[in-house]
User: Fold these one by one.
Assistant:
Number 1:
Amino acid sequence: MSGDADPPERTPADTAVVLDAMLGTLATYLRMAGYDAAYALDRGVEADDALADLADAEGRLLVTRDAELAASADGLLVESREVIDQLRELSKAGFELALSEPARCSKCNGALVEVDADARTPSYAPETGARRVWRCPSCGQCFWKGSHWVDVAETLSGL
Ligand SMILES: [Zn+2]
């Protein structure tokens, strides 16, 4: 036995995060996994104090590669440089990482809305086989379960 306590389990339903400027790619993966994942540069926030304040004000867990900031803001330190290793770290820290339904815009973190198939325009017609489409009301981007979705699902299931 290692003696380590099990980490708290985290799911998109109970955990919102803010990621520092180093973790933009990780933010897109977390959004695809359904997390409300704010990203420092999307929010125009880079200074440590401002990041800690944002996390506090919005009830977000601060995820950062800065050990001092993680300690001072009661955040989660990510040590790896590669996103796949960062995802493994989050998985070990209790994050449930899997794809079910598209819920968050990977570009801007907007909450996605499933759109009626009849409302699609040809410019966002998905590749053959994908029937459902979700749209981000904030930036207009459309999503479906295409080849990128399948790739990410496989990546996450292989952690
Ligand atoms: Zn968006």
Note: The chain is about 30% helix and 15% strand.
Number 2:
Amino acid sequence: MDLPRPFTIRERHHRIHNPFDDTKLATLGRAITPAPGTTILDLACGSGEMLCTWARDWQITGTGVDISTVFLGGARARAQELDVTDRVTFVHGDAAGYVAAEPVGIVACLGATWIGGGLDGTVELMRRSLAPGGMLLVGEPYWRLEPPDQATVEGCHAGHRDDFRPLPELVERFAVLGYDVVEMVLADQDSWDRYAAAQWLSVRRWLDTHPDDELAAEMRAELDTAPVQHVRYQREYLGWGVFALIAR
Ligand SMILES: C[S@@+](CC[C@H](N)C(=O)[O-])C[C@H]1O[C@@H](n2cnc3c(N)ncnc32)[C@H](O)[C@@H]1O
């Protein structure tokens, strides 16, 4: 099991695989101020930037689970770089159904709520690893502006407008699921660009060095359209944020 190559071609240089930049990630840490020694389980951890930097900045200990061997390689290298290998562990595996052996203080899933079949199922999956009184961190898209047509919906990588909620409805949903929203940090258009626009340079450099690769035509076609698609649709209509939740 591994992440399909187009993702790693686009995002192999990313440390954060969602519309946060490093400032937003640090803001989230300051917002929730995890106590030293807090245990964190990060489902679909990507390249482990949250766990590694928070191990350095907040002395947390953490486990990250992801299917991407490329991203996990980056996570382990980052842990070495930040000298936190004694505090973070990265596991290659399917996060769908992953439950910690011992309940943890924080369970995170930033930008991968498909692992539990959607938001509700993922919150329930996360709850199963959470110690009493612990905190969930859920990273989720929402409609920043109401999409006017199906082209906009699809331009935001959704099949149907109901795939995402407007922000007030997303926040209401957490209450329906039995949680207080106790903090949130939202992406902005500049941090979206750090996620999306940074992929274009990675793809272009890959194309320049892999002209005969079997994926070259597909990646070339993607680079032809991705920048306009981003500024026309995603950058305008799609928001993204991390919501900190504590059970009522
Ligand atoms: C949008 S990225 C977010 C990564 C990370 N949370 C971050 O914010 O940088 C989604 C991640 O989900 C991982 N992923 C996708 N399906 C998965 C699964 N079933 N189990 C574990 N990881 C998965 C991908 O490899 C990718 O790293």
Note: The first helix runs from residue 5 to 11.
